[in-house]
Amino acid sequence: MTLFLIGLVILLVGGIGYGRYCEKVFGPDDRVTPAVALADGVDYVGMKKWKNQLIELLNIAGTGPILGPIQGILFGPIAFLTIPIGCVLAGSLHDYFVGMISMRNEGAQIPRLMQKYIGSGTNKVYNIIIWILMLLTGVVFIYTPGDLIVNDILGLDVNSGVIWVVYAIILLYYILATLFPIDAIIGRVYPIFGAFLIVSAIGVFVGVLFTGSADLHPITEGALISAHPTGQSFIPVFFITVACGIMSGFHGSQATLISRTVKSEREGRHTFYNMMLIEGFIAMCWAAGAMVLFNTTAALDTPATLVVGEVSRRFMGNIGGLIAIVGVIVLPITSGDTAFRSLRLMIAEQFNIDQKAPAKRIMLSIIIFIPALAILFFAKSNAEGFNLLWRYFGFTNQLVAVFALVLTAVYLKIHGKNYIIALAPAFFYTFVVISYICHAEIGFSLDARLGMDGYTVSYIVGVVAAVLMVLFVNKASSHNKDEILRLDNAH
């Protein structure tokens, strides 16, 4: 309980202080934002501050800050420190600067920002990765809420025919949310969804507080870092597993979406940075709830989706638990809809397809949803399909975040500002994603192939990659610097 409370203090105090520092580094002013200057009634729509904040929160808070921490707490109480520290220094910083840089560039999506500040070569690589991530995110956020609805709400087998009916309903909502103006559906239903989200998070938080410190202790041996039940290494696996509670590349696509609806740059810290802090709070609550459960009644190998229901009912009773489960179902749905919407905008920007015409929006949506359905069918029909989908989703998610941090570092260095605040987390996460994919079975299995124990070779490759990333930032920030400054100053 002590570490849990210390972590919450770090999240609150550290978040307020560092958020203000990040705001000072960027320097928001009173210039006209894209929501006003480029208003088109579809994607560029000025909305109220509270609505932008709520939509941003619901966009970024999928199942990641719940399922990730539930799995991450198996590494021990260290999660109560790494989640808030990472959220303050990396995740919130990532979301804030991506949103603000986009706002300074007419609400451009990250691929276009990559091309401007880093170059077309990097942009081509990034496009492939981010499009894959958006598809995987959309599919994951059809699969997980669908299964939760069938299992926890309807009480049916997730392999029954009903599951495809539920998938179809969720998909239909995604299609509508992708096609219609952002304030027509998303802006109207999110306040209702937000109520469920807040109730579920507060319910778990209060339940953890009243449980008492006796139930919050290491899951296995070890005072701070526990021996993972399946032998996973804390670094890098923890930071791939607990992605959305600490940092998530997916958030960048959502921040650029909301950059088109914010009417004042001075709202940026509250809209981008602070909403990520709230996601960190959600992650902390579910990590604590899972720890209580694992130390009392649940086996360590209980699937994370089942832990959600058990935690909800334990702390909130049957009725309150049902509300909490609905809140958890809402989270992925409110991320999946904007994942597909963001993908539509990215493709439209890449190929200069005007999105004011409904016919063109429909065409792009068809292109997006056909491969999404194919991936969903594979994941559901294959016994290991979803596990494979989730692992690649986690890795790709963090890899995309590295690109965004590199973009931020280059932007800040070009403008003569403190770029180290972005370069430091970029260095760490470059090491994390490279060492992970080098070692993992879904990657190169490098250590196993070379007959080495642990992560020996993978760690070395990770460090080398991180150093090369630093050199890349220095080189990229000097390329076309004068021209970029001229264009930015013209805005």
Quick summary:
The chain has 491 residues and is mainly α. It has helices at residues 2-26, 34-37, 49-60, 64-72, 79-103, 110-117, 120-153, 162-179, 186-211, 234-241, 250-258, 268-294, 304-351, 358-381, 385-414, 420-439, 446-449, 456-476, 481-490.
Task: Set down the secondary structure blueprint.
Blueprint (H helix, E strand, L loop, with lengths): L1 H25 L7 H4 L11 H12 L3 H9 L6 H25 L6 H8 L2 H34 L8 H18 L6 H26 L22 H8 L8 H9 L9 H27 L9 H48 L6 H24 L3 H30 L5 H20 L6 H4 L6 H21 L4 H10 L1
Helix pairs in contact: 1-5, 1-12, 3-9, 3-11, 3-12, 3-13, 4-12, 4-13, 5-11, 5-12, 5-15, 5-16, 6-7, 6-15, 7-8, 7-13, 7-14, 7-15, 8-13, 9-12, 9-13, 10-16, 11-13, 12-13, 13-14, 14-15, 15-16, 15-18, 16-18
Tell me what portion of residues adopts beta-strand conformation: under 5%
Q: What does the average pLDDT come to?
A: 87
The count of domains is 1
H/E series, N to C? Answer: HHHHHHHHHHHHHHHHHHH
Quickly give the structural class: mainly alpha
Report on this structure:
The chain is an all-alpha fold. The protein has a single domain, classed as Amino acid/polyamine transporter I (Up-down Bundle). 74% of the residues lie in helices and 0% in strands. The protein has 19 helices and no strands. It has helices at 2-26, 34-37, 49-60, 64-72, 79-103, 110-117, 120-153, 162-179, 186-211, 234-241, 250-258, 268-294, 304-351, 358-381, 385-414, 420-439, 446-449, 456-476, 481-490. α5 (79-103) packs across α11 (250-258) and α6 (110-117) crosses α15 (385-414). The radius of gyration is 21 Å and the shape is globular. It starts with a helix and ends with a helix.
